[in-house]
Request: fold
Amino acid sequence: MFKLVIMRGGLETGQVVLEAKRISIGRDQTSDITLDDASVSRHHARLIRVMDSYYLEDLDSTNGTQRNHRPITKHVLKHSDEIRIGGFTLYFIAEEEAGQRESDASPEPPTAAASATEIKSRPAAAAGTGSLQLPKTARLRFFRGPNTGRTEILGRGLYTIGKPGGEVAVIARRPQGFFLLHIGGERYPRINNHEVNSVAGVKLNEADVVEVGENLAEITFS
Reply:
């Protein structure tokens, strides 16, 4: 399954499952995906499905279309690509591709290093196909970054950490549990001081410490 996660100002505004062969994106209300902002052209871009891939094509828009911070005219999309259209950021998610790669992910080695908050490090579990029941919610308690001292409840499908243009990761809720995925930025996120470089994501365990850019948080489940 393919879908777009739509964000504006660092906040998720919606998700769109992609099924049609041609999908129009623009400010015009007749667009398949309407992005209501003056920075978006009436007919800004479109998605074209060819076999098992989607191509993103700019329609000579005023402000252009970017894929992973680079202007494009037409480009095939890959899992976790970041698309900039006006003031919106869209993340292309290919869940079938991610699921196939989960089975190839290998466990991270254990570490003895402690985090900056003196929380003991624990080995990060790799993505897999375990039979554990999905927790109803997860909580992130922030020790560093803009949300320091706050606890965020993760009840929806995707929770974003970081800001577009910098280090960005998402925590995805799947049938097997909660997974951390790298979305954008030069540096990969870390779990218990281990770098996460798996496209499929890494499964999070109770009390894991997640680091994304300047953000440091501990995750717990309920």
